[in-house]
Amino acid sequence: MSTRQERLRTAEKLLRQGRLDAAIAEYLKAVEEQPRDWATTNALGDLYVRANQIEQAVVQYGRIAEHFWKEGFFPKAAALYKKILKVKPTDESSQLRLAEISARQGLLVEAKSNYVAVIEQRRKRGDLRGANEIVVRLGEIDPADLEARLAAARALVSLGDAGKAAQMWGELAAELDAKGRAEEAILALRQVVDLEPGNMPARGRLARAYLASGNLGAAREFLTLDVAGNDPSLLLAVAEMELRAGHVDRGREVLRRVLDSGPQFRDHVASLAWNLAEKDPPTGFVCAELIADQAIAASDWESAAAVLQEFVTRAPHHVDALLKLVEICVDGSLDDTMFAAQAQLADAYLAAGRAAEARVIAEDLVAREPWDQAHLQRYREALVQLGHPDPDGAIAERLSGGTPFATTEGLEGFGEADEFAELLRTPAAPPGTAGPEPPMPVPPPPVLGAKAEPTRSEKAPAGAPAQPPRAPERPQAAQPAGPSLEAELSRLFEEPTKPARPAAGHSMEIDLTSVLGDLMPGQGASGAPKGGPGATRSLDEVFQQFREEATSQQPPDDVAAQQFQLGVAYRDMGRMDDAISALEKAARSLRHRFRSAVLLGRLYRDKGVPARALDWLERAAEAPAPTEDEHRALLYDLGETLEKVGETARALAVFLELQADAGNYRDVSTRVDRLARVQTGG
User: Fold this and answer.
1) Is 415 in contact with 557 (CB distance < 8 Å)?
2) Which residue from 287, 226, 228, 220 is spatially nearest to 259, judged by alpha carbons?
3) CATH 1.25.40.10 domain span(s) along the chain
4) Confidence bin at 538 (pLDDT 50/70/90)
5) Under 8 Å between Cβ of 586 and 563
6) Which of 2, 7, 62, 65 is nearest to 32 (CA)?
7) C-alpha pair distances (Å), 105 with each of 91, 117, 141
8) Helix (H, G, I), strand (E, B), or coil: what is residue 529?
9) Cβ partners under 8 Å of residue 211, min gap 6
10) How far apart are CA 262 and CA 612, in angstroms?
11) What is the pLDDT of residue 580?
């Protein structure tokens, strides 16, 4: 048996005899002979515990734990450190080692518990520096524990490690800001700047944070042009700071530097403009105008207009922005955008009480689009603000051409601009009365028995080419009262498919006889020739002449178009009589007859004159409809009006036609069922 084995057996005998100290002495000799005999070392530690020699036991356990720690056997090391803490709970080295091992193993709660225990122990004995050192270690083990990291940053400041402290405060500021803890983020940035006054990025971040919180005074303390340098983002912050502080000129110059840095910063300047627009439109306009000017310099008129359009959506009554927008539209030939901008500018002038400027623009808009109700309302509001005694009368006079408008732009649909301008200069009828009908070339009635004047071709010498017939001359005197050629022909031949309606108490035969007897030269009422053979003409020839004369009396299309639009404008103003008068003139044109007659029918229906409504709706039905939808709407109105006047059979026929064409159009099916029952007496 070896000496070591004999010594261990001796120690065991001593233990069984209760001689603990002698046994410890034998174990101690065995450990000294073989220091890496960890089993014997552990047994020696246990004997020290039994002997209540705690410090000696901790030394033996600590040797074993340190060995496992260095070898990387962390679970075994942790077990030994825990064994130490059972016999000596305040052993800091064991607590710190166990905290490190727990952190490595991801046992963060256990690690924090051990660090906190060490911190409290050191503070109790007045070791504040030592406590702060552990606070820093505690803040490093869990990135998600912001509170522990904040405490660590403060501890670093107390320890005098400014560089590491500034770095940690900067990281914390970014994370706090991301979590919406803006005030704490600002405090963290203040710590960075206080620790490193020359840290320009940190000063810029702090200035931006103060700007975002609205603290302009604090922002100015930390950000200057020197701090910004050539950094566009910092320059933008300086510009915003200057603008918000009311230093517009300095802010404008800084923004120019930002925009010169590259087109990618245009959106950043635009965002600043939008942010300022709602609360401080003049300052926001400074930003928007700079972007627009840059686009103008590149002849990019659309982009220049677009940025100002976006701005005025946020500041709709900003006059300077709208003036700039109109100017850009004129220079860039952006007509559609210009018209909308003019309308918005007129509204801005009205909102600002600048009625004189608003009136000028409104007149221009109304002259261009007299049918637009919004333009008419702007014009009326301007007149009201200017104290005009009769705004509606003035508008009516303008619409009827009693006084000239400032422009004739945009009138391509009504003929040449100079012709329309001439029409606008025609004196207007008094408000509320139908204006005079446009003069039409009506030939004088032929004299009974007189020989027809030879044509130019008949007067021409033999062999000369025939000349075109001369246009009938305009009459110099008014026609006598009573039935005129124009009135009779408009009933008989202007709409040849529509039967003429006889006057009450007279038959159609008497009306025709009377008309023909008075109008046919060389022929009596019975149709017998009068005045000799040379004056005799057939009835077909007379009818053909009447049709030609009726066609020649149609107004020009541009005049009819003007009358139609005026009629619509009068209707929207509630001046129904004036509307009817204008629309009746427009209806003389074949091109405008359908829509004019439809509107007239509806106007008379609304006035409670169903007979006149029916008359005009029937005329509309005889004219070609521009679209299928308009044709169906007319048939519906016609059937409804026929039903109201008691002509149920005709109403049923109209609704049946509409049903066959459009199916379940509106309530046509219901009307057909009802009228069918009326017809059958059901």
Assistant:
1) yes
2) 287
3) 557-680
4) low
5) yes
6) 7
7) 21, 19, 11
8) strand
9) 219, 237, 240, 241, 244
10) 70
11) 94
Between CA 224 and CA 228 the distance in angstroms is 6
The pLDDT score that the predictor gives to residue 674 is 87
Decide if 378 contacts 365 (C-beta within 8 A).
yes
CA–CA gap between residue 110 and residue 97 (Å, rounded): 12
What are the helix (H) ranges across 214-247?
A: 216-222, 225-228, 232-244
DSSP state of 263: G
Within 386-478, residue ranges assigned H as helices are 391-400, 417-424, 456-459
Residue 376 token pair: 């008419």
> And the tokens for 299?
């002849």
The whole-angstrom separation of Cα 238 and Cα 253 is 11
Q: What's the CATH fold of domain 557-680?
A: 1.25.40
CA distance 680 to 673: 11
Q: How confident is the model at residue 43 (pLDDT cuts 50, 70, 90)?
A: confident
Question: Pick from 62, 82, 65, 87: which is nearest to 74 by CA?
Answer: 65
Confidence of residue 449 (pLDDT cuts 50, 70, 90): very low
Which residues have a Cβ under 8 Å from the Cβ of 644 and sit 6 or more positions away? 610
| pLDDT per position as a tens digit, 98-126 | 999 999 888 889 889 999 999 999 999 99
CA distance 327 to 545: 57
Strand partners, 523: 529
User: What would the two tokens of residue 618 be?
Assistant: 């029937």
User: Long-range contacts of range 666-671, CB-CB < 8 Å, 24 or more positions apart?
Assistant: 666/636, 668/636, 671/639, 671/640, 671/643
Take residue 343 and report the two structure tokens written for it.
């309308």
Q: Which pLDDT value is given to residue 51?
A: 87
CA 312 to the chain's CA centroid: 11
Q: How far apart are CA 300 and CA 292, in angstroms?
A: 9
* Tokens at 395, concatenated: 């508008």
Spatial neighbors of 480 by CB under 8 A, at least 6 apart, are: none
The model carries a pTM of 0.41
What whole-number distance in Å separates Cα of residue 122 and Cα of residue 592? 102
CB-count burial class (<10 Å; 0-12, 13-18, 19+) for 499: exposed
575: left (phi over 0), alpha (psi -120 to 50) or beta: beta
